Structures are given as structure tokens and as C-alpha cells.
Amino acid sequence: MVDPATLEKRLITLEQVVFDLQHKFESKPSPENWLENLIGSISDDSAFLEALEYGRAFRQSDKPINDADK
What we know:
Elements: H1 4-27, H2 34-38, H3 45-61
């Protein structure tokens, strides 16, 4: 069994962390427009372009091959 003093100390630490997280979350203004949440979320353009290319390749792989294209 855990020592009561240790348990109390851990509980106090946990309560402080929860308080800090709640304060951080509540003090952050939430934008009205959902798009404002996404702006700036892709900071690395090369990674974004690579992801677009993977998506394009995936969509193209699902298309049937025409005999005229061969």
C-alpha cells in the first residue's frame, strides 16, 4: 500500500497540474471561425506538398486503366 504522505503529495501535485491546464485552456481565446484554427497549422510547406502528392497518387491508383492509354 502507498504511504499516506506520499499519496497526499502526489494528489497535491496532480491537482496543481489540472489547475494549470484548466487555466491555460480557459485563458486561450477561441476563434469564431473554424478556419482560423487551421491557419498556420501546416508550418512546413514541403511536408504539405508531399502529403498532397501522396493523396493524388492514392486517388490515381484507384482509377481504372483504359486500353487507349496503353
